[in-house]
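Suppose you are handed only these lines of text.
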Amino acid sequence: MIELKTVEEIKIMKAGGKILAKTLREVAKIAQEGVTLDELDRLAEKTIREAGATPAFLGYQPTGANEAYPASICASVNEVVVHGVPSQRTLRQGDIVKIDCGVLHKGYYTDSAITVPIGEISPEVKKLLEATKKALELAINECRVGKTIGDIGYVIVDQARKHDLKPLKGLTGHGIGKELHQEPTIYNEGEKGTGLSLQEGMVLAIEPMFSVGSDEIRQLADESYATKDDSLSSHFEHTVAITRLGPEVLTK
Ligand code: MG
Ligand code: MG
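From them, the structure of the protein bound to magnesium ion can be written out as follows.
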């Protein structure tokens, strides 16, 4: 069942989303050459807790996972797309790191992700990041009453195609609210006007994930997902409410 949120509930989620946005900003600031993924994680946890909220990913165990998640962020470097577990790995010049984070605030979850370049990156990688960010922006603009899930997927895959990139298969966005992952599934591809109609009160985590090479993923030993051919990938995500007045980004 799809949980529709009241204006009051959306307000609470927006307060949580603000904490999450601040957390990602702070983490992005220290994401530089020589910094470890663990250091990024510690700063995220500290920022969330100091704001009076709870890191949503820490201890999270979805059905099918072998163990509870041990950190407050996912930190996925280069070919790793999502679910990278923070470690003593040090960031290096030219890396791109995807930082995905969730906040639990007053009973409601928000979810957001950014891809941060470390030092100088090539024009090709810059294009990958910009195109993924743009796809998220275009997808957010589709989050309106009367549009469909297919409309969201269409603008995402269309943006990827225009830049010779591919949305990664099997990785999707989702509804969000009293649980971190809810119905409906938000595909990063689709046909205009198809699929579920969007309604006022839906809150969706929209998250385009693009690859410069293969659109297939493989699971690594730490349960993270990398591109099958080790090509670079990027990820941007926002939690978005569908309101009478249009899309409202809750995680900015
Ligand atoms: Mg996320
Ligand atoms: Mg998500």
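What can we learn from it? The pocket of magnesium ion (ligand 2) is lined by residues 111, 174, 205, 207, 237 (CB under 6 Å). The first helix runs from residue 7 to 30.
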